[in-house]
Design goal:
Strand order of the largest sheet: 1-2
CATH architecture: Up-down Bundle
Radius of gyration: 19 Å
Shape: elongated
Low-confidence stretches: none
Strand content: 5-15%
Helix content: 55-70%
CATH class: Mainly Alpha
Distance between the termini: 24 Å
CATH topology: de novo design (two linked rop proteins)
Length: 136
């Protein structure tokens, strides 16, 4: 178990969440419970699943929550494209937010790969040698 606040990707996801909350403030009021809500929910899901996953036991369970975060950031990218195409976001705002999403997505993919690789390694054995314990 680790502290989610020690994950760089959680900090990036949190920064993205804060930017998105500011951005959707400018959406039309009729979108308050539509696309704006969907964007906020997806952004919250990215960081919340990372936090929840760190509280679980074992890398495989953590990896499952990181994968859920990855799905949420992909959903978020889709919502941002819709917001841009509906002209709720300016082109520069979309580019900035989309780049932030892509960075979080890349970090999540790398974390999943690292967790998958560690799951494939055989467990280390401890052996006694001359009164000392060694890893083999």
């Amino acid at each position: 178990m680790q502290d989610f606040k020690n994950l760089k990707v959680w900090h990036k996801a949190h920064a993205l969440l804060l930017e998105l909350y500011r951005a959707v403030d400018s959406f039309p009021k009729e979108e308050l419970y539509g696309l704006a809500r969907q964007i906020k929910d997806a952004a919250l899901s990215v960081e919340a699943n990372l936090a929840e996953g760190t509280g679980k036991s074992g890398d495989q369970e953590f990896k499952r929550f990181v994968s859920i975060s990855l799905g949420s950031v992909c959903e978020l990218e889709s919502h941002l494209i819709a917001a841009r195409d509906l002209r709720f976001l300016t082109a520069p705002a979309f580019e900035r937010l989309n780049l932030m999403c892509q960075e979080v997505r890349r970090m999540l993919v790398a974390l999943i790969r690292r967790l998958s690789a560690s799951a494939k390694r055989p467990p280390r054995r401890r052996i006694q040698a001359g009164g000392s314990e060694l890893e083999a």
